[in-house]
Design goal:
The two termini are 34 Å apart. Helix 4 packs across helix 5, helix 7 packs parallel to helix 8 and helix 8 runs parallel beside helix 9. 55% of the residues are buried. 37% of the residues lie in helices and 14% in strands. It has 325 residues and is α/β, with parallel strands linked by helices. Strand 6, helix 6 and strand 7 form a beta-alpha-beta unit. It has an 8-stranded parallel β-sheet with strand order 2-1-5-10-9-6-7-8, with helices on both faces. It has a two-stranded antiparallel ribbon with strand order 3-4.
C-alpha cells in the first residue's frame, strides 16, 4: 500500500504569539516522530502552493481578498480573538491548500493509495466567508470541491473526528447534497455548532459527545450514526479531517480518546473507502495541541494508512515528543 506524505517547511513559518496552542512546535513534534524508521516506506513530497481558483470553489472572493490583505509584513494581525497571521502565515496556508489538492490528484490518478497532509494552519473552522478558530482556508472543503471539478467525482465525503465541530466544512457543504459531512465532537464546546438537528440538505450528520466521553462512546457514535450514513452515501472519495485533540491528554478538550481509537476509526474509514471509493482516502491534519499525544496519534493514524493494521504505537519512541522544546 502506497501512502503519500505531503509536507512543506512553510508550516514552520506560520508563527503565533507565545502561549497560542496552534504553534510551530506541533509540526516539529510530528517531524521528529516521522524520522522513526517505521515511516521509511512513506512516499514524501513537498506541497506546492495552492491556487486561487481552487480556494474560490469553497470560499468567497471577499474572504480570499481579506486574508491576503491582512497578511502582515511584520508582527501579528488578528483576524479574530483566536486566529492570527504572521508574515509567514499566508504562504503556509497556501501550501496547506496545495497539499490538499495534490493529495486528491495522487489518489484519484492511482499515484498513491492514500495520502496524509501534515501541514498547518488547520482548516475545518474556516467558513465560506470567514476565517476563525485558528483556520484561514478550509483545506478539506477545498479538496472536496477540487475532486468534483477537476476529477469529475460525484460524491465526496468528509469525516471529522476533531474534538471541535467543523463548522466551516458544514457551512460550505450545507446546501450540497453530493457532499457529505460527518462529525463527532465534544458539545458544548467551541464553536457551539454541531447539534443533531443541523442536517443541511440531508447530507450533514453530527454525533456530538459529552465531556468525559471516551473510546466506547466515540466508537458507538461512529458505528451508529456516521459510518452507516457514510455507507448509504457511497462516496467516491473519503476525506478525513484528522484532528487529534479528542485525545485524553489534550488541553483544549475533555474527551478521553487514546491512540487505539484513532487507529480504529482510520481502519473503519479505509474499509468504507475500499467498498465504495476504490480505497481512495485523503487525510488532512486539523487539531491536536498536546505535543506528545499529537505525535503518537499521527503516528498510529499514518501506520494504519500505510499498513491497514493497528499493531503500531508501542514501537514508536516518544522521548522527543514531550512538551519540553
Amino acid at each position: 500500500m502506497t501512502t503519500l506524505l505531503l509536507t512543506h517547511p512553510s508550516s514552520l513559518h506560520h508563527v503565533t504569539p507565545d502561549g497560542h496552542p496552534e504553534r510551530v512546535d506541533r509540526i516539529r513534534a510530528i517531524n521528529r516522530m516521522l524520522a522513526n524508521p517505521h515511516f521509511d516506506a512513506l512516499t514524501r513530497r513537498e506541497a506546492p502552493l495552492g491556487k486561487d481558483e481552487d480556494i474560490l470553489r469553497a470560499h468567497s472572493a471577499e474572504h480570499l481578498r481579506r486574508v491576503r490583505s491582512l497578511s502582515p509584513e511584520d508582527g501579528f494581525e488578528y483576524l479574530d480573538a483566536d486566529t492570527v497571521m504572521s508574515p509567514g502565515s499566508l504562504d503556509a496556508a497556501l501550501h496547506a491548500v496545495g497539499a490538499a489538492t495534490s493529495a486528491v490528484d495522487a489518489v484519484m490518478t492511482g499515484d498513491a493509495d492514500n495520502a496524509f497532509c501534515a501541514l498547518r494552519p488547520p482548516g475545518h473552522h474556516a467558513e465560506r466567508g470567514r476565517a476563525m478558530g485558528f483556520c484561514l482556508f478550509n483545506q478539506a472543503a477545498i479538496a472536496a470541491e477540487y475532486a468534483r471539478t477537476i476529477h469529475g467525482v460525484e460524491r465526496v465525503a468528509v469525516v471529522d473526528f476533531d474534538v471541535h465541530h467543523g463548522n466551516g466544512t458544514q457551512d460550505i457543504f450545507w446546501s450540497a447534497p453530493n457532499l457529505f459531512y460527518g462529525s463527532t465532537h465534544q458539545m458544548p464546546l467551541y464553536p457551539g455548532t454541531g447539534s443533531v438537528q443541523e442536517t443541511g440538505a440531508g447530507n450533514i450528520f453530527n454525533a456530538p459527545l459529552r465531556a468525559g466521553d471516551g473510546g466506547e462512546q466515540f466508537r458507538d457514535a461512529m458505528s451508529t450514526v456516521i459510518l452507516p450514513a457514510l455507507d448509504v452515501f457511497s462516496p467516491e472519495l473519503v476525506i478525513i479531517s484528522a484532528g487529534f485533540d479528542a485525545h485524553h491528554r489534550d488541553p483544549l478538550g475533555s474527551l478521553k480518546l487514546a491512540e487505539e481509537d484513532f487507529a480504529w476509526i482510520t481502519l473503519q474509514l479505509m474499509e468504507a473507502a475500499e467498498i465504495h471509493a476504490g480505497g481512495r482516502v485523503v487525510s488532512i491534519l486539523e487539531g491536536g495541541y498536546d505535543l506528545q499525544a499529537l505525535a503518537s496519534s499521527v503516528g498510529i493514524h499514518l501506520q494504519a494508512l500505510m499498513r491497514g493494521n493497528a499493531g503500531m504505537v508501542e514501537d514508536i519512541d516518544d522521548d522527543e515528543t514531550e512538551d519540553d522544546f
